[in-house]
Write a structure and sequence with these properties.
The structure holds three protein chains of three kinds.
Chain A (H helix, E strand, L loop, with lengths): L1 H23 L12 H20 L1 H5 L8 H26 L5 H9 L16 H19 L8 H29 L3 H20 L11 H6 L7 H19 L9 E3 L4 E3 L5 H11 L3 H14 L1 H13 L2
Antiparallel strand pairs in A: 1-2
Helix pairs in contact in A: 2-4, 4-7, 6-7, 6-8, 6-10
Chain B lengths: L2 E4 L4 E4 L2 H8 L29 H23 L8 H27 L16 H7 L10 H4 L5 H22 L5 H29 L3 H14 L11 H8 L10 H14 L22 H16 L6
Chain C lengths: L3 E2 L7 E2 L19 E7 L7 E7 L3 H12 L7 E6 L19 H4 L16
Antiparallel strand pairs in C: 1-2, 3-4, 3-5
The chains are: A mainly alpha, B mainly alpha, C alpha+beta.
Chain lengths: 316, 313, 121
Amino acid sequence: MTAPALDRTLDEAALQARFDATIAAGHRIEPRDWMPEGYRKTLVRQIAQHAHSEIIGMQPEGDWLLAAPSLRRKAVLLAKVQDEAGHGLYLYSAAETLGADRADLTDKLIERRQKYSSIFNYPTLTYADVGVIGWLVDGAAICNQVPLCRSSYGPYARAMIRVCKEESFHQRQGYELLMTMMGGTPEQQAMVQDAVDRWWWPSLMMFGPPDDESPNSAQSMAWGIKRHSNDELRQRFVDMTVPQAAVLGVTLPDPELALDEATGRYRFGPIDWSELQRVISGQGPCNDERIARRRAARDDNAWVTEAATAYAEKHA
Amino acid sequence: MVTASEGGCGMAHEETVYDALDHAHGGEGQWAFGTGFDEPLAGVDTTVPDGIDPADLGEYCLMLGDDALVLAQRLTEWMTAAPELEEEVALGNTALDLLGQARLLLARAGSVGVLGRSRERTTPTVPDEDALAYFRDPDEFRCTGLMAAPGGDFGRTMVRLLAASTLRLAVLTRLRDSRDPVLAAIAAKGVHELTYHRDHAARWVLRLGDGTPESHRRAQAGVDAVWPLLAEVLSATDVERRLVTAGVAVDPAGTRDEVRAVLTQVLDQATLRVPEWPADVPPRGRTGEHSPELTTLLATLQGLARQHPAATW
Amino acid sequence: MTELTAEGGHGAVPTGPEVPVADRPAVSRRDWPLYEVFVRGKRGLNHVHVGSLHAPDDEMAVHAARDVYTRRNEGVSIWVVQAADITASSPDEKDPMFAPSGDKVYRHPTFYEIPDDVPHI
């Protein structure tokens, strides 16, 4: 009885070697390829929580859909929120190639066993928040997401290409809204500055803890499912955003923000990581509300999903 | 290998199959976002044809435009609350189509000088479509109760969408021959969209009516709630009558057989009971007489814009 | 500190071992079947796989595909096929005994290249 076990060990070693060689060559891993269990689990967690973030991310801006102050803005925002539903859908599909199940992942979200990005637990207090989410939050997301277009896992990389194409429209519409508002009444200008003040630090936190506090990052980098370090992406975002803020005419709420002449990069002040931990652990301003909305969408409409299934069975 | 720069972070990725799709639609990089950026009125003569009263024409545009606007708002209420993500996207598309129709129609009303009291409440920098959507009071709206009624559950939402899109499709199909080239162009575009909306709603009504006992019950309750709203929708106003004579508008009464036939066919197939068709009553919504629910809907829609009447967005 | 990654797209989320990923033994009670979507962007091109969606039946699937993956472009040809109906091969496939996660875990061949003569609707 020892021979098959030995064969299995040998065979797994060969499979592992082939997997490692594929990654090393910069090629993609595809759904039916053998992969280490840790790689699969890490991907499912990451993709599922990315999908959850897209779906929950519909809500902060979605709160302004019915009240958007012009018909053009209403159409743009509707298209954007709809895109986010699509992004969630593409990403759940990618997770499903790894053996996950969308309804099961949705249950885990609603039961708070899986998380979504903490940024969406902040409220949108004025219409300027819609613009700032596009500019800062989607801008930060683009910095995070563009490297994912080269993820070692094929379905995730391909889903991300679609997502990134649409996100670039999201960021532009946000910035354009802010430009328009900054050219408007003094009240509107104050709304923009206030929104920037509230969203700037949470945007920087979107990149995650500093590199020296991210113990598993090295494994994810080796697997090709993480391409750049948190600090590196955060720095890119700051360097990209500071000149945009100047054009817009807003002040970023960080007195320590300054250009380092030697490196050409911007230094910024310390981030309050205890706030991130607080929000992630469910104490953010809107955690309960966001989850309750998803629960209602699932539970109040279960009869619709069941009806369509019953109809399909009758008419098969 | 072709590479393309993506986003503000300046990193590149390989060309993919999506690029072929992108190029097929003009390469604007947002093919999934849709190609609805075509100017639907490009090349259309916008002068009011001879013998048509611009006040009547504008009023008629408000009727059709307000219908689309309030129904779009009702469907938008489903965003983040729909049964499945696929349906979220579908409802979003439908709402976007209707919103597009509303914008063209309200802009047309404004361009022929029908702005009601809206201009007294805002600044000239606000476009006509927004002045009309945001700065008219409920009694100046010309939508029917069929479009403005609250959506209710998904069953009632789909039954109402079926009735509303069946009626509007029947009207716009005929309106493609309008003497007003702008209305004819808007109708031609809208017919494609409404055909899709009607089919989508019909597919759902079939599945809900002939699904589970629970869904059948809810769909029937939706039918019973929506049917009374049909009492006023086939009655023409004086404005419509004059414009019908002038070859500009469609008499809704002329769509009666088509609308009843379509609705009866779908409900029969969905194993739902078809209620008695309600007796015609004089137009209410078209003359500015609305239920309190429209006031609530408009308070939400208009609130922010009215707080900042001099703002540009 | 909880393990967090920013590469969940919209920002830092926990990805440590405390986050459950275990599969359910059976398909969820609510889930509609999974469909694969193929789109021909213009004449002269093959249909290419663009993604997946859930739908209760074939008719709803093809319409959902139009809404989700083309936002209703006219003149685009769409195929949908239930993922379960696709037969796929892979050079890396092994005897299930040696690839314990083979058929169950990777049961879904999404984004997989398939021959041009795939059955379509």
